[in-house]
Design goal:
Structural class: alpha/beta
Strand content: 15-25%
Number of helices: 13
Distance between the termini: 40 Å
Radius of gyration: 24 Å
């Protein structure tokens, strides 16, 4: 087949299906680079895809590599412990093509000699990351377990001369990791902090709020909490500029309402373990009764509610959802699995003339992919 005679759009699709873009290991990266040698057109169109991201991952974590690849990569340029294409991109002189930094550091499997190697390579090409728009950075508490290494994350970020303004930055971190990164992060259009099971320090939320509050240039500020031990409340979520909040920790309906009223910039809210608690609300007025509910002062456009199965009451859940629908006229999309479908559809049909926003509301009974995990 002569690729030169095919339309660019067709060649691009062939490249997308041929490359192993989702498996980020040095072996797969070399295979992708080899495909670019087929012809000039494949190289021109495929090069931005192959060299899109620098990845630095722990070798021994199966989420990123197969067992066979782990064995092959033990003797890679980086030595045991790390899978990365950093050296390969540096040797090819194509660091200026890189769009994304994807870094995960676990120092229970990665010796500090490897960190020094990474820092050295980054420093040698420090002025060539001008095209990087996205930073995805994961670091675990293991990183800080050794004495005298409390600032490894700060040192790592300080060693990469990234553009002063990026499209998006996503950080998965514990409190120890968050503490020193705020002033070394570039500015970004979208800033996201993810607090998972490793983020169990009591000061985690306080530090996360502090980092997000300093990102005043960001148009999108996200906080994702996937740790049920963290004390989530309107008091502990203090960054009032948050635009996206996702909480997997159990919280009650009253707390959810307090968050909505406090976080006036919030556009998207997702709660994955919502408890009814001692929720009380004013009676929902009958349709055409000339009595209207007082709306919340909010900008919320998207709401996802997963009610706690252990205290699920169909009637109570429907009442909560009805009340929220009437009090949030800015809502455009609501997702709430297991809420009785007919009850909600009948309610919208009865009230949409008095509350016109209900006419355009997209109510779904399935989970949105972006709120399932991180």
């Amino acid at each position: 087949m002569q690729f030169a005679k095919l339309p660019d759009s067709v060649v691009y699709l062939i490249i997308r299906y041929s490359l192993s873009l989702n498996t980020r290991t040095p072996v797969r990266f070399k295979e992708n680079v080899g495909l670019l040698a087929v012809c000039h057109k494949l190289r021109i169109l495929g090069l931005p895809l192959v060299y899109d991201a620098v990845f630095i991952y722990p070798t021994m974590f199966g989420a990123y590599t197969s067992y066979a690849d782990q064995i092959k990569n033990v003797q890679s340029l980086m030595g045991p412990g790390i899978d990365t294409n950093l050296d390969l991109i540096h040797e090819g002189g194509l660091s200026s093509v890189v769009n994304t930094f994807m870094v995960e550091l676990h120092f229970d499997t990665q010796p500090f000699s490897n960190l020094r190697h990474i820092l050295g390579t980054l420093s040698r090409v420090n002025n060539r990351w001008s095209s990087v728009e996205k930073l995805h950075f994961v670091f675990r508490p293991d990183l800080f377990a050794m004495d005298g290494q409390n600032h490894c994350t700060k040192k790592f970020l300080s060693s990469v001369v990234l553009p002063t303004y990026m499209d998006s930055i996503t950080i998965h971190a514990s409190a120890t990791g968050i503490r020193d990164i705020g002033h070394v992060l570039p500015k970004a259009r979208s800033m996201s902090l993810v607090l998972d099971s490793y983020a169990s320090d009591t000061h985690t939320l306080e530090l996360a709020n502090k980092v997000l509050s300093t990102a005043k240039e960001s148009k999108q500020l996200q906080l994702r909490i996937f740790n049920s031990e963290l004390p989530v409340s309107a008091k502990t979520i203090s960054c009032t500029n948050l635009t996206h909040l996702y909480v997997a920790a159990p919280i009650c309906v009253n707390t959810t309402i307090e968050l909505v009223l406090k976080l006036r910039s919030l556009c998207e809210l997702g709660i994955q373990s919502l408890k009814l608690g001692d929720f009380n609300h004013d009676p929902i007025p009958e349709p055409n009764s000339h009595t209207r509910v007082t709306p919340f002062n909010t900008r919320l456009k998207s709401l996802e509610l997963h009610f706690n199965e252990h205290e699920f009451s169909a009637y109570a859940v429907v009442q909560v959802v009805k009340m929220l629908l009437l009090k949030m006229p800015t809502l455009e999309r609501v997702v709430s699995p297991k809420v009785p479908k007919k009850s909600i559809l009948d309610f919208i049909g009865e009230y949409k003339e008095e509350y016109p926003h209900l006419k355009y509301l997209d109510f779904m009974w399935h989970t949105l992919p972006e709120i399932e995990g991180y």
